[in-house]
Automatic annotation (TrEMBL):
This is 3-hydroxybutyrate dehydrogenase. NCBIfam families: PHB_DH, PRK12429.1. Pfam families: adh_short_C2. Belongs to the short-chain dehydrogenases/reductases (SDR) family. InterPro entries: 3-OHbutyrate_DH, NAD(P)-bd_dom_sf, Sc_DH/Rdtase_CS, SDR, SDR_fam. It comes from Actinopolyspora mortivallis. The keyword Oxidoreductase applies.
Length: 263
């Protein structure tokens, strides 16, 4: 586990921020939404632990915000078991994608996506809840997707995993309601992340079309607001859900999709 300058960061932070003194865990924090969330929670005074499988990228983000980090493969159950212990805030963000028709979908890839996006969040939440219950406060934010609310072809494992994460989040919300713990999902549409940028590039190369055409005609074809969501927008919603203004919001799924699911 890397330590960076967490102590110095906390000393410099003082009591500033709505989440001062709270310990936060963010998975998939080496880039994209996870990195933006880590930065935002740190700005609110949280002592953030960043989790990612890419050592170089997560170290860079952690160093920039004076936070701790650990390199973990979330598909390995033994690596996940203790991650959630002694944290006040859990942000389950890590994810991956594999695209293929159901009848050609590799079973091992289907299992991998569910391991990272359903089983790992379950294990992290399971480890976190006893401490949250004891302290009478906790915030769980699961980065779901519009695909946790809708389906698209060729993404059977991803859609299954995100729907599963939605169910887990709601079950936790009901169980934890009497302990000062909230559990919610944030459901973005397509976000400007390396994850999405790679999908755009792959599609453009495969179909020999400009990247801009892929964004407009494929990614945003069902979205009234014709732009990608920015990671910082998602991070703002996550921080708000963790703050004092959202204490009555639990078991919710909040779309941030430019109107996609309104249709």
């Amino acid at each position: 586990m890397g330590d960076s300058s967490a102590a110095a960061f906390r000393e410099n932070s003082g009591s500033a921020g709505e989440l001062a003194g709270k310990r936060a865990l963010v998975t998939g924090a080496g880039s994209g939404i996870g990195a933006a969330v880590a930065r935002r929670l740190a700005a609110e005074g949280s002592d953030v632990l960043l989790v990612d499988r890419a050592a170089e990228s997560v170290e860079a983000v952690a160093t920039a915000i004076g936070a701790r980090y650990t390199v973990v493969d979330l598909s390995v159950p033994e690596s996940v078991a203790e991650l959630g212990e002694n944290v006040d805030i859990v942000v389950n963000n890590a994810g991956l994608q594999y695209v293929a028709p159901v009848h050609q979908y590799p079973p091992e890839m289907f299992s991998l996506l569910l391991a990272v996006m359903v089983q790992a969040p379950f294990r992290i939440i399971r480890a976190a809840l006893p401490g949250m219950y004891h302290r009478g406060w906790g915030r769980i934010v699961n980065i779901s997707s519009v695909h946790g609310l809708r389906a698209s072809p060729l993404k059977s494992a991803y859609v299954t995993a995100k729907h599963g994460l939605e169910g887990l989040s709601k079950a936790v919300a009901v169980e934890a309601a009497g302990h000062g713990v909230t559990s919610n999902c944030v459901c973005p549409g397509y976000v400007r992340t390396p994850f999405v940028e790679q999908q755009v590039t792959d599609h453009a190369v495969r179909h020999r079309v400009p990247r801009e055409q892929v964004v407009e005609d494929v990614l945003l074809s069902r979205t009234p607001v014709k732009r990608l969501v920015e990671p910082e927008e998602v991070a703002e919603l996550v921080a708000w859900l963790c703050g004092p203004s959202a204490t009555s919001i639990t078991g919710s799924s909040l779309p941030m999709d430019g109107g996609w699911t309104a249709q």
